[in-house]
Structure formats: C-alpha cells, structure tokens
Specification:
The chain is of the alpha/beta class and 386 residues long. It folds into two domains: 2-189 and 365-385, Rossmann fold; 206-363, Rossmann fold (3-Layer(aba) Sandwich), CATH 3.40.50. The chain is built from 13 helices and 14 strands. It has an eight-stranded mixed sheet, sandwiched between helices. The longest helix has 23 residues, at 82-104. It is globular, with a radius of gyration of 21 Å.
C-alpha cells in the first residue's frame, strides 16, 4: 500500500527530536514493504530562517515534503478565531497535497499524527475520497479539562476520521469520555537504535537520567525539589537532564539555590545517538511529568535496560510494572523523593537484560508496525466497499 504520513516535521541538526515519532513509524512501514511519503506543515514561531513554501528532503529512501506558509499570522489567527484558522490551514494544505500527489501519485491512505494534521487530512479525504486514519498523542487531549478551542477542533475532526488511534489506554478513555468517540490503542514504538548493552557497574555513583523539553508539564521542578529532600552524599549520585526549553534558567536557579550544582546537570539538546549513549551508561530513568499521553522517552530507556521511576501521569500505566520500575503520584514531591531513594538503594536488583527484552517484544518497530499495517488494511478494504 502507499501511505502518506502527515507529520509535524522531521528531525534536523537544529532540532534532532522534532518529528521522531512520525519518522520511526514511517520507517517501520517502509521496512514492511509499503511505500511511504511524509508531509508536514510548519507554522511554529522560531527565531531562525526557514525557506518559505515547499521544501523536500529524503530520509532513508522516504521522501519528505514540508510546507512553511509563515508563522506570525498562524499564531495570531489561532487565538482570534479557531474556526477561521482551521479553514485557512485546510486551504493551504489542499494546495500543498495537490503538489505532492502530482509528484508522488495517489496514496491508498492518509495517516495523520496529532489533531491539527488530522484536521488538514480531512480536506484531502473530501477531495480525493482517500480514507484517513488519525493517531492522537497530543498532550492537549490528555487533560481532564480540555481547552474550549481544542475541544471544538476535536469535535469537528474525530467523527469524520475513518479510524482513530490513541497511544495509551488513558488517552483512549479521556477522548471517549469527552467526545463519545472510541479508538484503537497502539502505543508509540521505540526505535531499533535503543537497545541494551551490558556495562560495568559504576560502584561509586548512581546515575539518574531524564530526557524531554524543559517545560512545566515535564515536572523537572518537582524532580529537583525531590532530590533536594534526600540529602544524599553528593559523591554518590548524579542526575542528567537532557533537553532544551524555556524553563532552563528557572531550573538552573533552582539547582543553584539547593546547592545541587555538582550533582544535577542541564545537558541541553542532544541528538539520538548521544541520548542512546547517555541512557546506556546510566542506572535509572526518571519521568516526573505532570501529564503524558504515553511517555515514549521512558520506553526508550526501558529498551536500554534501565529501570524507570514514573509519575502516574497517564501513559506510564501502559508500561511501568513491578518488574521494571516504580509509579508515584503526580505532583507529590515527597512520594517522588521516596521513589528516588528506593531506586537509589535497590536499582541493582532489577534485571536490565530482561527489562530490555520485554520492552522490545511490546514496542519494537516490527511489533507496532504490524499493528498499524493491520488497521490500515482493514480501513482501505472497508473504504473500497463503500
């Protein structure tokens, strides 16, 4: 089958994590023998140059078409009128997808990641009669109280998809509760690059690690405070926080005030190779988030054999168990501190090789790719019968 994957974007040297979820799944489908093309529309506000219009690139034989229609107007319009913003974006996407179809041919299916892309895909469905499968992993849909403009957007989109996929059971339940639309749960996959490597234990220091954008939703302020409660000997532990974002200065000031400079390091953004190396040379992964639709970064750590401490923030319930880690309540700094101390003392009791093996069985590109393939084939078959 030929699948047009509608993504946020694709990884770059400047932003190595942007669009990784989508690219991983596109590569998995390509490996199963399907023809894949990636489309993305970038309206983000960024303080660097981007070429206006359509640009093309290739990722492992997968063509990627990106449309940059400008960003200032999009940021203003989405706040003034969500309905008008949707119409303008769909107009832009309709012209964009026509160009791609002229070059790549007609797809059998549009596969859209996140609500905004599913909204755009419906334009192509109406014009060309091509079915659309949407997958939701946007954190905005994981909150108990969804913002009114997001709720309006979702109500206009989900009911018109041929199939909706959600990345965790908690997200499925939240969307069902808010929109009375059921979905199929397919967890995010972990890239094949993440794997277990036996390493010699560092007997002098316990190495904690976490990855993600430095945003309030990630709960790094709580994590730093939780370590501040422990008063562990400074020479016996470290924490590396990998990622960049607007919370950098605030978090660094917090680290300074708690006199944890020697132990906690804000490492900045890293590419995938660097992240894998850091994971493979760490002892414990921590996910301190206030909300996660899934938590793929923690699963990547499991694939490298690390036991995980995770807040019960949504998606973690799908993959954290007694065999691979600990769950603790969201925004409970004392419980998080207790979990850190427990793992500090007993992390050596976890079987890292077994953690990695079980993770690969559930979340490998082959396992998730086959789940998607089955769904796509059923949707295409049903569409042809109509």
């Amino acid at each position: 089958m030929k699948v047009f994957v509608i993504a946020r974007g694709a990884p770059s040297k400047r932003e190595p994590q942007w669009g990784n979820f989508e690219l991983d799944q596109a590569l998995a489908l390509r490996k199963l023998g399907h023809e894949v093309v990636i489309l993305s529309v970038d309206t983000r506000f960024r303080m660097y140059y981007r070429k206006f219009g359509i640009t093309t690139s290739i990722y492992s034989d997968i063509p990627h078409y990106n449309l940059f229609p400008g960003s200032l107007w999009a940021g203003v319009l989405i706040r003034l009128s969500i309905s008008l913003y949707i119409k303008v974006m769909q107009f832009c996407f309709a012209r964009f997808v026509k160009v791609v179809i002229n070059k790549e041919g007609m797809p059998d299916l549009f596969y859209s990641h996140y609500l905004p892309n599913s909204s755009n895909a419906l334009v192509a469905k109406r014009k060309y009669g091509i079915p659309v499968v949407g997958i939701e992993h946007w954190s905005e849909l994981g909150y108990a109280n969804i913002k009114p403009r997001i709720k309006y957007w979702a109500e206009t989109v989900y009911k018109n998809l041929d199939c909706l996929i959600t990345v965790s059971k908690v997200l499925r339940e939240n969307i069902l509760r808010n929109f009375e639309i059921d979905s199929i749960v397919v967890n995010n996959m972990v890239g094949n690059e993440f794997y277990y490597v036996p390493i010699k234990k560092n007997v002098t220091i316990v190495r904690f690690v976490t990855t993600g954008n430095l945003l309030p939703v990630k709960g790094y302020d709580n994590l730093i405070k939780a370590f501040g409660l422990l008063h562990l000997p400074s020479e016996t532990w470290s924490l590396k926080i990998i990622g960049g974002g607007k919370e950098h200065q605030h978090l660094q000031e917090m680290i300074n005030s708690l006199q944890l400079n020697k132990n906690i390091q804000l490492c900045g953004r890293k590419n995938r190779t660097e992240i894998i190396e850091l994971l493979q040379n760490s002892d414990i992964y921590v996910m301190s988030s206030r909300s996660e639709t899934f938590g793929v970064a923690a699963v990547e750590a499991l694939a490298c054999g690390l036991p995980v401490i995770a807040t019960d923030c949504g998606g973690a319930r799908d993959f954290v168990s007694e065999e691979n880690g600990l769950l603790c309540p969201v925004n409970d700094i004392h419980k998080l501190s207790d979990a850190l101390f427990t793992m500090y003392k007993y992390h050596g009791n976890y079987n890292r090789a077994k953690i990695a093996e079980n993770c690969q069985k559930r979340f490998s590109s082959e396992a998730i790719g086959k789940q998607l393939e089955k769904i796509f084939e059923e949707v295409i078959s049903k569409s042809k019968q109509q």
